[in-house]
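Ticket #150: bound-state structure for coenzyme A.
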Amino acid sequence: MLRIRQRVDADISTVVGWIADADALNMFTGPRLVWPLTIDQLAAMTATDAVSAWVMIDDRADVIGHFDLALDEGTARIGRVIVDPSRRGRGYGSALVRLAIEEARALGARALTLNVVADNAPAIATYERAGFQQLPMSDRPDVRTMALTL
Ligand SMILES: CC(C)(COP(=O)(O)OP(=O)(O)OC[C@H]1O[C@@H](n2cnc3c(N)ncnc32)[C@H](O)[C@@H]1OP(=O)(O)O)[C@@H](O)C(=O)NCCC(=O)NCCS
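RESOLUTION: The complex was predicted; output attached.
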């Protein structure tokens, strides 16, 4: 069974190891960081009380995926979504998003939003499958904002 637990420091290097190149970093965090991603950079992105970072683990306690949730009043934002590259295309991304939705509800959020790079077809498909809808285009054509009412 898949479940989530709070990320611990040792998980950060696992996730950093999944980012193979600049394109992968752009899909993961958007354009704000320059490759290579460091452990300190990823830790810093979630270093406020309003943000909680999570990993999804399997029965063997292997870390399969990662995400974080930033809570702002009634709205949570999901970020840093990633599945271990060697395990993609097997339903783990959809499972991770479902667990993230449950956690956002448990944190008291009434809506969940996210930004995704516009040409990231696997991610957009994963979010749409979970019920997210694309919001009208903003002033940034390279980014899509998606939202789900909880
Ligand atoms: C996005 C990501 C988490 C999806 O994880 P995954 O385990 O491969 O996803 P799943 O196997 O659960 O597939 C989920 C949906 O995405 C679709 N999908 C998966 N890979 C795809 C691809 N390469 N192209 C198009 N659609 C794809 C699947 O078909 C599935 O939709 P369906 O059930 O309607 O067929 C994974 O590709 C990833 O980690 N990407 C790199 C990081 C990233 O881009 N993060 C998003 C930040 S916003």
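RESOLUTION NOTES: The chain has a mean pLDDT of 95.
TICKET STATUS: resolved
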